[in-house]
Specification:
The strands form 2 sheets. A 7-stranded mixed sheet has the order 2-3-4-1-5-6-7, with helices on both faces. A 3-stranded antiparallel sheet has the order 8-9-10, with no helix packed on it. The protein is built from 16 helices and 10 strands. Helix 2 crosses helix 4 and helix 10 runs antiparallel to helix 11. By secondary structure, it is an alpha/beta fold. A hairpin with a 2-residue loop joins strand 8 and strand 9. The protein has 2 domains: about 1-140 and about 270-375 and about 445-470, no CATH class; about 155-265, no CATH class. Helices cover about 40% and strands about 15% of the residues. The radius of gyration is 23 Å and the shape is globular. The longest helix has 24 residues, at about 1-25.
Length: about 475
């Protein structure tokens, strides 16, 4: 095991040195990881970002675009031949067609390379011609990212934490009842093991639908070709004796196999090579689902940031493995709010990741929080209600296409109004609920040179890659 770990470290070191030499003497490459939890809009974000890099009329917040220093942008084959290509063209057609619809969500890792021909800035512009910067966008499910935290947990530790969450959620009642009638120290029975794993998966699906973010193992939700395999046939068990041949002993073994054969290969192949990262968050959805969902989201975000090994890239880190040096936490669906509330949504996003950001900033990584909409699906209106002007957003409802106006309720100026009761274990907001609607994408009529309409996607791009385009 030790020799294997040393070999992995040396392999990553050689790869990192090779990447560093290539970037220094040839064409620099930025590997941007894009992830987020369910319904946070990863596919839409990547599609709109790429479309707006190709046609930069709406990218005033990206300095290299607004100054005209990006002379051209074009798609190229991604460098990883074993990774599926992100289906940009089909996703863009879905979002911008005559009858637009939201594209399918992320279910596995995919990649896309966008190459930018950029003129240098300042004195260098007269000494050298344009250079090519490659942006490799890596799309992967946030549910898989949560699994990286399992690498530091034993089966007993994960079980205790997972069962505590299941007991606190109404969605976990069925699994807990089944578990209480079971003897984990009894001889392994595959039918029982399969039923337990399926019950745990049903609970995870129900918990995610209820708005909870921390639902592990993530591959149980998105199993792909691993569905039904022993590596995905286990569930948390209460602490107790685990004799040889027992259900408890086998589940512990399968948990370790899951980490070594599923989680670690993902880390080595994709995650450990990322330079910049954006984490998309449906904060509005969590607020709508209530204090338990908000607190669960806060804890999940803290766990996510801990997996990034944040810090500045140095010569030493190029040997030991790259560190993510910029991380953006983006609250999506800002177009569901009137613009006057965008600042409040950003403040809530900043408060949700405050503890985790402090640790990252201390280690040298630049972190940011922002409220964005990768594809604007609504328009703003002001309506007179009870003698006062009320800002609303209007769009087509996803369920039936009807036009509807929404004022979901005013977000608080002070994020602690939400986070304090969430941390204290409140079950509901004292001041009522925050409404939410699901809007369909609006039909578009794009001018030549314009990408899809958005909110602050250009500023997000400037934070993530702007310094690499100078």
């Amino acid at each position: 095991m030790v020799i294997g770990a040393i070999a992995d470290t040396l392999g990553r070191g050689i790869e990192s040195v090779s990447d560093t030499v290539s970037e220094a003497f040839f064409e620099p490459v930025i590997r941007l990881g894009v992830t987020g939890l369910a319904r946070s809009g990863k596919t839409v974000f990547i599609t709109s970002l790429v479309a707006n890099l190709l046609d930069r009329g709406r990218m005033a917040g990206l300095e290299a675009a607004s100054s005209g220093r990006i002379e051209a942008a074009y798609l190229q084959p991604q460098p990883d031949d074993t990774v599926p290509r992100f289906e940009f063209e089909s996703h863009l057609a879905a979002m911008t067609g005559k009858t637009p619809f939201w594209p399918d969500s992320t279910r596995s890792v995919s990649e896309l390379r966008v190459s930018l021909r950029v003129r240098p800035k300042g004195l260098l512009s007269g000494l050298s011609g344009p250079r090519t910067v490659h942006l490799d966008i890596v799309d992967y499910p946030g549910e898989w990212l949560l699994d990286l935290g399992l690498l530091e947990q034993s089966f007993a530790q994960w079980s205790a934490e997972a069962l505590a969450k299941a007991r606190a959620r109404t969605e976990g009642a069925g699994f807990i009842a089944r578990l209480e009638a079971l003897d984990p120290s009894a001889k392994l029975d595959e039918a029982t093991a399969t039923d337990l794993a399926r019950d745990w998966t049903r609970y995870l699906v129900a918990a995610r639908e209820a708005g909870y973010s921390d639902c592990t193992p993530g591959r149980f939700l998105l199993p792909g070709d691993l569905e039904g395999s022993p590596a995905l046939t286990f569930a948390p068990l209460p602490d107790g004796p685990a004799p040889r041949g027992s259900l408890a002993r086998e589940f512990a073994r399968r948990y370790e196999a899951y980490k070594s054969q599923v989680v670690k290969p993902f880390f080595r192949a994709h995650f450990a090579r990322i330079d910049r990262q954006v984490v998309l968050v449906d904060a509005l959805g969590a607020i709508h689902n209530g204090p338990p969902a908000v607190e669960d989201l806060r804890q999940a975000l803290s766990g996510i940031l801990a997996t990034f090994r944040p810090g500045r890239n140095t010569f030493l880190s190029s040997i030991l493995g790259k560190r993510v040096d910029k991380i953006l936490f983006a609250a999506t669906k800002a177009d569901h709010l009137y613009h006057e509330q965008h600042g409040r949504l950003q403040a809530i996003m900043e408060a949700l990741v405050a503890d985790a950001r402090g640790r990252a900033d201390f280690s040298g990584a630049a972190t940011g929080a922002m409220a964005i909409a990768a594809l604007r699906a609504t328009v703003e209106e002001t309506r007179r209600v009870d003698g006062a002007d009320l800002g609303v957003v209007r769009g087509a409802l996803l369920e039936d296409g009807r036009q509807a106006a929404l004022h979901p309720g005013d977000l608080p100026l002070d994020p602690s109004v939400l986070l304090t009761p969430a941390r204290a274990g409140a079950e509901a907001w004292l001041d009522g609920d925050f409404g939410v609607m699901r809007f369909a994408p609006a039909p578009l009529s794009l001018r030549a040179g314009d990408g899809p309409p958005h909110i602050r996607l250009d500023r997000a791009a400037e934070f993530l890659i702007g310094d690499k385009l100078r």
